[in-house]
């Protein structure tokens, strides 16, 4: 160990612990933080003095005095305008661009369809022009750019900064050098950190910080698109990537190898294929003759999962039968995950949350009886309360955490 290494790490740890409390609270005093993280008031005051000098926090008045009287304590709060993050979430169909403040609260948002320009070079150029435009707009604000994060579909290696493979952007090829190419396009004057990772991993970060998983160290988020399904897996408080960055690709677990529906990956019977809009549309056409009064009967090829979920809410019998089928595959897929991972919480995100309590209860009931039926399953299953911004929020939180980890005060 290098001389002086331990104190530096200790200083970083102290700073980060203080900042985490500030980030989650409105106003707080030195004594309150000292009690919560068991550091001396002198240590906390030194950290606060550094944070004040850099503009990360500000004073915000006086607190209440103790029962014994004495001086009222100074209160401090985070300065969310200290810095900002640029987050860009690329879905199969749209690009969601946003900026956030230091609390990962969105301060600007723009959503645009991907359109016909889906090439690697074309989208890198789009990322770059967005970043440059935001930086120009922020140039007189005094805010510091903490970093830029790209939230991508498919297999992503964040350490190498590459998109390993995207089923929705096959023209990118293998190991597309996203970070290197974007940094080269932005030029030598751009010196902020660049991050990329898979959508579901960043959505797990968002769920941990701003959603249902704040009190859990072992949880999984499962996000379903009309075409696509994946997971973000957290074990003992750590987000899993795996040796090849495949961790979380549960959509490509084979659930029905014999009669399974074709998947975009080229296999059959993958989890995501069995619950995909393509398969549900095919099943709806097959069953529609038996449900002439269904809202789906007149739609044929125009059926969407939004229609199916809305029909469930209104009590449509065909829609409920279709969602019963989806729930059956969810139970098989999530049951396998429970046996392998034993999470405390599974958070369901995406399209099927629109089916309301009907779908959620079907999944919960099924999981009680899958695998080792004599053992009670205590895993909680719940719908996410986060909306469509969960990807950019999770990405921004990752940038903010990385910034703090690299700056000791």
What can you tell me about this protein's structure?
With 409 residues, the chain is of the alpha/beta class. It contains 12 helices and 15 strands. The protein has helices at residues 5-24, 30-37, 41-54, 120-138, 178-186, 199-210, 271-274, 277-287, 305-314, 317-341, 356-368, 390-405, and strands at 28-29, 57-62, 74-78, 83-90, 94-100, 106-113, 144-152, 155-157, 162-165, 194-198, 219-224, 229-235, 238-239, 345-350, 380-383. Strands 6-5-4-7-10 form a 5-stranded mixed beta sheet, sandwiched between helices. Strands 13-12-11-14-15 form a 5-stranded mixed beta sheet, sandwiched between helices. Helix 10 (317-341) packs across helix 11. It starts with a helix and ends with a helix.
Using brief descriptors, characterize the structure shown.
409 residues; alpha/beta; five-stranded mixed beta sheet; 12 helices; 20% strand
The gist of it:
This protein has 409 residues and is of the alpha/beta class. 39% of the residues lie in helices and 20% in strands.
Count, helices: 12
Compute the CA-based radius of gyration: 24 Å
Strand portion? 15-25%
The class by helix and strand makeup works out as alpha/beta
Number of strands: 15
Task: Give the SSE string.
Answer: HEHHEEEEEHEEEHEHEEEHHHHEHEH
Q: Uncertain segments of ≥5 residues (pLDDT<50)? A: 1-7
As laid out across the biggest beta sheet, the strand order is 6-5-4-7-10
Helix proportion range: 25-40%
The shape, in one word, is globular
Mean pLDDT: 90
Distance between the termini: 21 Å
Q: Quaternary state, please?
A: single chain
Largest sheet: 5 strands, mixed
